């Protein structure tokens, strides 16, 4: 696994901060936000690109692509894989998601056009902007010559990229897939659009701005970064004696077919996604010991996701701990599902459930066990991660402990 997040510049740093209940949210510094209603964001901090990308290659990559390449290099090293040596290059694929893509490069390119016409444009302007460049540059950087796909499904993109990679390996089309999501949309257009929508928190205090499931929540806080996971077939991993964090066993993605921004009443799409992932996994609801919620800190999401979990788990809904790690990372958009999959796997492996911070005031519509403010030690056999996106996308992934047996 590899990660670049507001909590840390590796997945280890990110996980350590999460279990300590730290917040990666601060004042927005990427641009002058004086005239914006949102003043806070979860920014990546002090990240050294030189460790991962040569100076003469950076200008060809938007920030979201840079994050994707860096997290993927970390992940492939963590996996102990050397493409072309330990695994054939043709048997290594890439599946990477993003919600928005190269929006920073888009804004820069438009400004150049306005100032000097098309003759003033950087020759590779197009390839810094388009969303598939994260997947493409990851493959180029690592020499992965197998299946290469890009998932663009709003805030479910990272989760879908992982689920799709799972399917590629199940079909036998690859032995290894580098999968995840990346986002870097803390720009005037990126922030401004959410301000205009009224979906973003206007709380000026970064420590309390993101408060999923709390009665006083007032919107999401935007974040950025990337998460990457190496998925590998059981046979390949055992053959090379790989270190295994866990096993992906269930994946489902469905549509609300209801509204472009609002979840369907009762979260019925999320219910079907969770049910589908459970059916795919072959597990029972009694096996689910933790849910990493989408938990955006918006009125609609938190209420409808809570309702969906109740419908899904029935009488166990109040017994299963649920937490929103977005309370610490902010909403990383297309990267969210990937980073939250890392949190879910680490919760299974370590028995530590990261908390929902800033949860102080109960909401009658949000009355589950959200692991408020303090990490909890439990034993988890299997856990579920939800990802819900604008346009009615609902995705669920289920992971479980890996014991090496089949």
UniProtKB/TrEMBL annotation:
One annotated GO biological process: fatty acid elongation
EC number: 2.3.1.179
SMART domains: PKS_KS (SM00825)
Record carries keyword rRNA processing: no
Domain Ketosynthase family 3 (KS3) as annotated: residue spans: 1-401
Xref: Pfam families: ketoacyl-synt, Ketoacyl-synt_C
Pathway given in the UniProt record: Lipid metabolism; fatty acid biosynthesis
Catalyses which reaction(s): a fatty acyl-[ACP] + malonyl-[ACP] + H(+) = a 3-oxoacyl-[ACP] + holo-[ACP] + CO2; (9Z)-hexadecenoyl-[ACP] + malonyl-[ACP] + H(+) = 3-oxo-(11Z)-octadecenoyl-[ACP] + holo-[ACP] + CO2
InterPro entries, per the entry: 3-oxoacyl-ACP_synth-2, Beta-ketoacyl_synthase, Ketoacyl_synth_C, Ketoacyl_synth_N, PKS_Beta-ketoAc_synthase_dom, Thiolase-like
Record's GO cellular component terms: cytosol
Keyword list, A-Z: Acyltransferase, Fatty acid biosynthesis, Fatty acid metabolism, Lipid biosynthesis, Lipid metabolism, Transferase
Active site: 155
Record GO terms (molecular function): 3-oxoacyl-[acyl-carrier-protein] synthase activity
Role description: Involved in the type II fatty acid elongation cycle. Catalyzes the elongation of a wide range of acyl-ACP by the addition of two carbons from malonyl-ACP to an acyl acceptor. Can efficiently catalyze the conversion of palmitoleoyl-ACP (cis-hexadec-9-enoyl-ACP) to cis-vaccenoyl-ACP (cis-octadec-11-enoyl-ACP), an essential step in the thermal regulation of fatty acid composition.
Listed name of the protein: 3-oxoacyl-[acyl-carrier-protein] synthase 2
Lineage: Bacteria, Bacillati, Bacillota, Bacilli, Bacillales
């Amino acid at each position: 696994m590899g990660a670049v997040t507001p909590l840390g510049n590796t997945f280890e740093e990110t996980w350590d901060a999460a279990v300590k209940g730290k917040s990666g949210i601060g004042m927005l510094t990427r641009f002058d936000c004086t005239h914006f209603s949102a003043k806070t964001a979860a920014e990546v901090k002090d990240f050294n690109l030189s460790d991962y990308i040569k100076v003469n290659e950076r200008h060809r990559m938007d920030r979201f692509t840079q994050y994707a390449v860096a997290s993927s290099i970390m992940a492939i090293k963590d996996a102990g894989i050397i493409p072309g040596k330990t695994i054939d290059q043709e048997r290594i694929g890439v599946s990477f998601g993003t919600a928005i893509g190269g929006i920073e490069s888009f804004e820069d390119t438009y400004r150049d056009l306005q100032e000097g016409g098309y003759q003033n444009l950087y020759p590779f302007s197009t390839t810094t902007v388009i969303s598939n460049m994260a997947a493409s540059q990851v493959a180029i950087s690592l020499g992965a010559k197998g299946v290469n796909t890009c998932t663009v499904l709003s805030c479910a993109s990272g989760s879908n990229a992982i689920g799709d990679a799972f399917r590629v390996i199940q079909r036998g089309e690859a032995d290894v897939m580098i999968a995840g999501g990346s986002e870097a949309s803390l720009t005037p257009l990126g922030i401004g659009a959410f301000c205009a929508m009224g979906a973003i928190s206007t709380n000026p205090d970064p420590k309390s701005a993101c408060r999923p499931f709390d009665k006083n929540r007032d919107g999401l806080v935007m974040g950025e970064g990337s998460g990457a996971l190496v998925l590998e077939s059981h046979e390949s991993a055992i053959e090379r004696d790989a270190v295994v964090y866990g096993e992906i066993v269930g994946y489902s993605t469905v549509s609300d077919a209801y509204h472009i921004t609002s979840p369907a009443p009762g979260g019925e799409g999320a219910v079907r996604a969770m049910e589908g992932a459970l059916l795919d996994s072959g597990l029972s609801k009694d096996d689910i010991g933790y849910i990493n919620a989408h938990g955006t800190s918006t009125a609609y999401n938190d209420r409808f996701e809570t309702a969906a979990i109740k419908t899904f788990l029935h009488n166990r809904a109040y017994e299963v701990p649920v937490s929103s790690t977005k309370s610490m990372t902010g909403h990383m958009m297309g990267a969210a599902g990937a980073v939250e999959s890392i949190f879910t796997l680490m919760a299974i492996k370590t028995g530590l459930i990261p908390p929902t911070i800033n949860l102080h005031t109960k909401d009658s519509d949000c009355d589950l066990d959200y692991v408020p403010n303090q990490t909890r030690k439990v034993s988890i056999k299997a856990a579920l991660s939800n990802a819900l996106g604008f346009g009615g996308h609902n995705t669920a992934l289920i992971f479980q402990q890996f014991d090496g047996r089949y």
